[in-house]
Give the backbone structure.
Amino acid sequence: MARILGMGNALMDIITHIQSEATLARLGLRKGAMHLVDIDTMRLALSLTKDCPRRTMAGGSAANTIRSIARHGVGGGFIGKIGHDRQGELVAQSLTTAGIRPLLRQSRARTGHALALVTPDIERTFATFLGAAGTLNTNDLSPSDFVGFDFFHIEGFIAQNHTLLERALAIAKSAQLHTSIDLGSSNIVDENHGFLRRVLPKYVDIIFANQDEARVFTGKSTDEALKEIAQLCSVAVVKLGPRGAIARRGDETAATPAIDVPCVDTTGCGDHFNAGFIYGLMHEWPLQQCLHFGCYMGACIIQSVGASMPETLWPQIRAHAESIAG
């Protein structure tokens, strides 16, 4: 069976439901975006939301995807950086519990965390303090870490460090791994547009974007954006939220609707979609089935709070995958 290596920000997630958008305004955060913040802003955000419902768990976009794929019995590894603290121990434990080899470096900085501020309309706005995760650099990469894997998935948030992202992708390609990236956030795409346009066609096989990221990346409407992104890689995927997802591979285009379920929290939805889609590719499913399973995984995660799939759902998820495989 194929094995997958991931790389990204090793973080703890703090999911907080806020009463109104006034909190976002107070913190200077644009609704729906991911913002990198310093420790003082993070402390203020935690203080302003101290009386709001809160849940803490291991997170990180690429880590969420790798943990999700690993729960299907796929061997995995994850490269990231943590601090010498309890939060770092929890990140490492979340990986080993899922059967993932934790290729974690350690930093003197504290383990990073992402505060997801969820408004009543279920929209998430992230305030992220990278901490130790932000100190990951090219010196932390070893070609030997990529040996024995078939796929490599990296998050677009790493694009803040151009040298690191390009070096990781270059090592993966030289090791003949299939490479994938999730563009992460429209503001990340906007701030690193020229770099991404140069690097992605050179190293990336599979590009995941939501419709906002696709629009910012190409300057075009969704369907035209998909076509343009597909010219840069082997497989392009655009996630449409409640309208499902579309994908293109060569001249083949596929679309699938979202699965209608009660939505509690969309944190991790895109990450689990990616896991389902990549799992399908690993098993050489048709493009349509890869999309469907991605949407199925996304539908499962949004029915509860946080990016960690409830244990009770895994038996039915695995059964659904088996039904697709025939």
